[in-house]
């Protein structure tokens, strides 16, 4: 599976990713997205809707800004999980 496919595919079927450090949270109405970093230094997001976990995505090889853009896009309804 290519990097792009893994980014666009939710990891919900594998359970929650073990993130280490929380960096930021984006909220818009019923949606919330949290930006995290894992133990290997990869950025990722945890997505929620109505306080129910919807899934995690790991962005290996991408920047913090990339993860924050994904989080913002989710809460604005641009990115669907």
Distance between the termini: 19 Å
DSSP helical segment count: 2
Average residue-wise pLDDT: 88
What is the count of β-strands?
4
- Main sheet summary: 4 strands, antiparallel
Number of domains: 1
Shape: globular
Low-confidence parts:
1-12
Task: Provide the spatial order of strands within the biggest beta sheet.
Answer: 1-2-3-4
What's the Cα radius of gyration? Answer: 11 Å
Fold and architecture overview:
This protein is an alpha+beta fold. The chain has one domain. It has 2 helices and 4 strands; from the N terminus they run H-E-E-E-E-H. The protein has helices spanning 3-8, 64-75; strands at residues 19-28, 31-38, 43-49, 52-59. A hairpin with a 4-residue loop joins strand 2 (31-38) and strand 3. The protein starts with a helix and ends in a 6-residue tail after the last helix.
Map the helices and strands.
Elements: H1 3-8, E1 19-28, E2 31-38, E3 43-49, E4 52-59, H2 64-75
Antiparallel strand pairs: 1-2, 2-3, 3-4
Summarize, please.
The chain has one domain (about 5-75).
Using brief descriptors, characterize the structure shown.
81 residues, alpha+beta, four-stranded antiparallel β-sheet, 2 helices, 22% helix, globular, disordered N terminus
